[in-house]
Specification:
This protein has about 475 residues and is an alpha+beta fold. About 30% of the residues lie in helices and about 20% in strands. The protein has 14 helices and 22 strands. The chain has helices spanning about 5-20, 35-45, 70-80, 140-145, 170-185, 190-200, 210-215, 255-270, 290-305, 355-360, 375-385, 420-430, 435-445, 445-460, and strands at about 25-30, 50-55, 55, 60-65, 85, 90-95, 100-105, 115-120, 130, 135, 200-205, 205, 230, 250-255, 275-280, 285, 315-320, 325-330, 395, 400-405, 465, 475-480. The strands form eight sheets. A six-stranded mixed beta sheet has the order 14-13-17-18-20-19, with helices on one face. A four-stranded mixed beta sheet has the order 1-2-7-6, with helices on both faces. Strands 3-4 form a two-stranded antiparallel sheet. It comes from Corynebacterium genitalium ATCC 33030. This is Divergent AAA domain protein.
């Protein structure tokens, strides 16, 4: 249970008065009205919160005259019982400027107890989440995802009614069955046809979603949006436009999950930079991103993404920016897995159990399983990044999606065997124009080094500015005289 003392409350209110607005984890109410239930629901569903009753936001967060803390406390406790499950905050009376206020501390519910909703509004209309300094009603999709924590989903075992066994790749299916005969001989005791159903390759006469995604001839015939998209962005955000084109490179990949992984990794490899480190004897090529880590992240994204009907229109996205690589998949973390314990020994929970088991027994064309033992993917990622002297991956988890972020490898001192001017000049041959910030992000050099290099190139007539001096939109390009 969270806990705040008087000094923390005083400091919090002082900050509110300076900022003039509430925050993600703080809500101010002048009294206990009916709409306080939405706040209780939101804090219970999204990461704890502090509710302060007895201050007027319109009056600059000053105490409400005539506020009765005992009466309002009883009203708040009553409102807490109007939610399912009931909210049980820690409620105390504090004094601000010698006036009483209520301070209620609401803890986030365990994942299996969500969503917390206003009982009279119903689960699908009365579940809220905190968004900025206000509440937002959860969508039906978000509520459904929370409810899957109670009963494990089996969307991957659902039959695909339009597909038949002929839509599975014969070589892939034969190879998979060969492994199963060796590992589970009893499964084939009553013949192969029955084994196909026991293994959940078929449900009746139809392939399951899991078998189609892993062994299908062309899964996108039935699920055209279950693809992987790749985008190479010219700046640090999707809204950056530098060359007149929104994307420097883009692609949509189709095929089975093993094929999608291979295509996605190849796109990253094609578009990333590989530096050469010159040692005493050998030259070593060092990429921006370890491909082992990229592969693991992409396998995890496709294996653990949400395959419910509501999510089948969403793709796994690979987005490459000048300073990072992001891989985003539909659906947040599942089960007991959190951002905090992700990758810890013994922590593993699969949303798609059948699909995960198939991928563990399938191999890439070059050999090696598509997915290693469950729970080892993050450890493999971390190890690859550590060996490359890179920061560990970052994770963003929401109900609707999950993102892995790799920060681009910084240039090591021993790689700086060319001048800053040489490095910056090389970049101008790859793209029409660059901002100073983009040059810093791409080269890993300091801003002063980049500024000096650009100045040197301008003085030599190699590079020119696109805008007047001191323009906030300043960019640089190869001089028209030098091209």
């Amino acid at each position: 249970m969270i806990s705040v003392n008087k000094d923390e409350v005083d400091a919090l209110i002082a900050d509110l008065r300076v900022i003039g607005a509430e925050g993600q984890a703080v809500e101010i109410k002048s009294g206990v009205g009916k709409n306080i239930r939405e706040t209780l629901s939101a804090f219970s569903n999204s990461g704890n919160g502090i509710l302060i009753v007895g201050l007027s936001e319109v009056d600059g967060f000053q105490p409400v005259v005539g506020f009765d803390p005992v009466k309002e406390r009883d009203a708040l406790v009553s409102r807490c019982d109007e939610l399912t499950p009931p909210v049980r905050p820690v409620v105390d009376i504090h004094h601000i400027d010698d006036a009483p206020v209520l301070v209620a501390e609401i803890s986030e519910l365990n994942r299996e107890d969500k969503p917390c909703y206003v009982t009279s509004q119903g689960r699908y209309n009365g579940s809220y989440i905190r968004s900025g300094d206000s509440e937002r009603r959860l969508s039906k999709y978000e509520v459904d995802r929370l409810l899957e924590e109670e009963v494990p989903p089996k969307w991957d075992e659902q039959p695909v009614a339009e597909a038949f066994v002929d839509d599975l790749s014969e070589p892939e299916l034969s190879g998979f069955l060969k492994v199963q005969r060796k590992q589970r001989p009893k499964t084939f005791a009553d013949g192969e046809e029955k084994a196909l159903r026991r293994l959940k390759i078929l449900d009746g006469d139809h392939p399951t979603l899991a078998s189609l995604l892993t062994m299908g001839d062309y899964p996108q015939q039935f699920f055209p949006r279950l693809t992987v998209t790749f985008g190479l962005f010219p700046g640090t955000g999707k809204g950056d436009v530098t060359t007149g084109a929104r994307l420097l490179d883009s692609a949509t990949f189709a095929g089975t999950i093993p094929e999608l992984v291979e295509a996605g990794v190849a796109a990253v490899e094609k578009n990333m930079r590989t530096a050469s480190v010159i040692g005493e004897v050998y030259r070593t090529d060092v990429p921006d991103y370890p491909l082992v880590a990229v592969r693991e992240a992409l396998v995890n994204a496709l294996m653990h993404r949400d395959y419910s009907p509501s999510a089948q229109g969403g793709q796994v996205q690979i987005n490459m920016f000048v300073d990072r690589l992001e891989i985003t998949s539909p659906g947040g973390l599942y089960g007991g897995v959190t951002v905090e314990n992700l990758g810890d020994a013994g922590v593993s929970s699969s949303r798609n159990q059948r699909l995960a088991s198939f991928l563990e027994d399938l191999t890439f064309d070059g050999g090696g399983p598509v997915a290693e033992n469950r729970g080892s993917g993050i450890a493999t990622m971390n190890r690859a990044l550590q060996e490359a002297l890179m920061a560990p991956p970052e994770f963003i988890n929401r109900i609707t999606d999950f993102t892995v972020i790799f920060r681009k490898r910084r240039v090591a001192p021993q790689e700086r065997h060319v001048t800053a001017s040489d490095r910056v000049h090389d970049l101008f041959t790859q793209r029409e124009s660059w901002s100073a910030a983009e040059l810093v992000a791409e080269t890993g050099l300091s801003r002063s080094a980049v500024t000096g290099a650009v100045k040197q190139l301008i003085n030599s007539g190699t590079v020119e500015a696109t805008e007047p001096v001191r323009s906030p939109r300043q960019r640089y390009r190869l001089s028209r005289r030098s091209t």
